[in-house]
Design a protein that fits this description.
By secondary structure, the protein is an alpha/beta fold. It folds into two domains: 128 residues, Aspartate Aminotransferase, domain 1 (Alpha-Beta Complex); 261 residues, 3-Layer(aba) Sandwich (Aspartate Aminotransferase, domain 2), CATH 3.40.640. Helices cover 39% and strands 13% of the residues. The chain is built from 15 helices and 15 strands. The strands form four sheets. Strands 4-10-9-8-7-5-6 form a seven-stranded mixed sheet, with helices on both faces. A four-stranded antiparallel sheet has the order 11-12-15-14, covered by helices on one side. It has a two-stranded antiparallel ribbon with strand order 1-3. Strand 14 and strand 15 form a beta hairpin. The chain is globular and about 70 Å long. Bound molecules: pyridoxal-5'-phosphate (PLP). The site of pyridoxal-5'-phosphate (PLP) has 13 residues, from helix 5 and helix 6. The site of pyridoxal-5'-phosphate has 13 residues, from helix 5 and helix 6.
């Protein structure tokens, strides 16, 4: 007999006991929804809105003077946000900057580190988010390196996860860098960042990470782990809004590397407006900015970082792990038709859970139509992300209960295979 209590009242009780319960009041979840998609797009929050409104008002009141006279000055948004992001990813302030987008930052940093590396191969994995491979392949290509020969793709044994040992087997003295996600976008596996970094360094290669699915929900230690570089976005768990600015980290040992994608926003501040044809890099990670900071795509992050700092990344991680553990237990207990595609050990699990079902596409559409916002990732995954910022245990219970109902009532019959509703 399992001791797990799968009742709605038990979920409600856990919400009442949670130390972070007040957090969700700072966010507005779309009406009548159980929002389990915070790993795709976080929700609107009062803190983000106020920060964005402040930037808009300062544009109205100051015009061009806002670059220097706004509070904070638009001119150094990237550095100021970077200083604050450093805490969330375990870095020194000068090692982080808010800039560009994830994809652009992959281009910028993979290019930079390829130029600095002795080796020529980039080790990635077959379950990566595709944009990472597109960017890396093009960075290899512009250096005259055929991606078919120099992109080394580590395979998965189970289609869900990547073993650290398999990465170790793929790294050789020809490796320029290992570039891995912190969390796989489909299964939610959390990688061992420190171990992978050590593997790369044992072969004099660099270690870079895509933190898109962990920033704001996993407590990283990038500097301590010796990670060489990392990139991320702020529209997922950081809740800074659609199209919000990306971020990057470069270890201080590499501050002397010339950026592969140089631009005037990465120039040293004191000479940026000299408009000198020669690029003079700013100190630290700030040198990897490229063009003008997108002020309105960055401003909301000032507000949402207030929330991260108030809650504390450790406590957010703790709550996230408790929510995903609860979700896994409920799936085990109430959804025998479904499998859990996410590692069960907390230290190998990011912020979301892959609930596998042969009809995952139709299940996802049925859930969305019932107000449970999840997303489908082919071939068989319903991705469920109980963001610790605004999702409670009862929400998780409601999502699983709705899924139980979808399967019990034949609701799937209303959904065709072509993305259309049949009835
Ligand atoms: C793991 C991962 N990397 C990269 C990206 C692409 O980011 P962007 O479109 O902001 O460049 C995404 C988008 O969801 C992602 O999930």
């Amino acid at each position: 007999m399992s001791e797990f209590d799968a009742s709605q009242s038990a979920a409600r009780m856990r919400d009442a006991e949670s130390s972070l319960t007040g957090l969700r009041e700072r966010f507005t979840v779309p009406e009548d929804t159980v929002y389990m998609d915070g790993n795709s797009l976080g929700v609107h929050g009062e803190d983000a809105r106020e920060a964005l409104q402040r930037a808009l008002d300062q544009w109205r009141d100051l015009g061009i003077e806002g670059w220097t006279d706004a509070d904070p000055p638009w001119f150094d948004y990237g550095e100021r946000l970077g200083d604050r992001l450093a805490d969330a990813v375990g870095a020194k302030p000068a090692e982080c900057v808010a800039a560009n987008s994830t994809t652009v930052n992959i281009h910028a940093l993979v290019g930079t580190f390829l130029d600095a590396a002795d080796g020529t191969d980039v080790v990635v994995n077959e379950l990566d988010f595709p944009t990472d491979h597109y960017a890396i392949r093009s960075q290899l290509r512009v250096r005259g390196l055929d991606p078919d020969d120099h992109l080394v793709v580590v395979g998965s044994e189970d289609g869900r996860t990547i073993e650290t040992d398999a990465i170790a087997d793929a790294v050789t003295d020809d490796t320029a860098m290992v570039f891995m996600p912190s969390v796989l976008y489909r299964s939610g596996q959390l990688f061992d960042v420190a171990a992978i970094t050590d593997i790369a360094h044992d072969h004099d290669a660099f270690a870079g990470f895509d933190l898109a699915h962990s920033v704001g929900v996993v407590d990283h230690d990038l500097h301590f782990d010796g990670v060489d570089f990392a990139v991320w976005c702020s529209y997922k768990y950081l809740n800074a809004g659609p199209g919000a600015i990306g971020g990057l980290y470069v270890h201080e040992d590499h501050f002397d590397l010339p950026p592969a994608l140089a631009g005037w926003w990465g120039n040293a501040d004191d000479s940026q407006f000299d408009l000198d044809p020669e690029f003079r890099p700013a100190d630290g990670a700030a040198a990897f900015q490229i063009g003008t900071v997108p002020v309105f795509a960055a401003a909301p992050l000032f507000g949402t970082l207030d929330v991260v700092e108030a809650a504390g990344i450790d406590r957010l991680r703790e709550r996230s792990a408790a929510l995903t553990r609860y979700l896994v237990s409920l799936v085990d207990e109430r959804l025998p038709e479904c499998a859990v595609g996410t590692p069960r050990e907390a230290e190998r699990r990011g912020g979301h859970v892959a609930v596998e079902h042969p009809d995952a596409d139709r299940v996802s559409r049925a859930l969305r139509d019932r107000g449970v916002v999840v997303d489908y990732r082919p071939p068989n995954v319903v991705r469920v992300a109980p963001s610790p910022y605004f999702v409670g245990f009862e929400d998780v219970w409601l999502a699983v209960d709705e899924l139980r109902d979808v399967l019990d009532t034949g609701a799937l019959e209303a959904y065709g295979d072509d993305g259309e509703t049949v009835t």
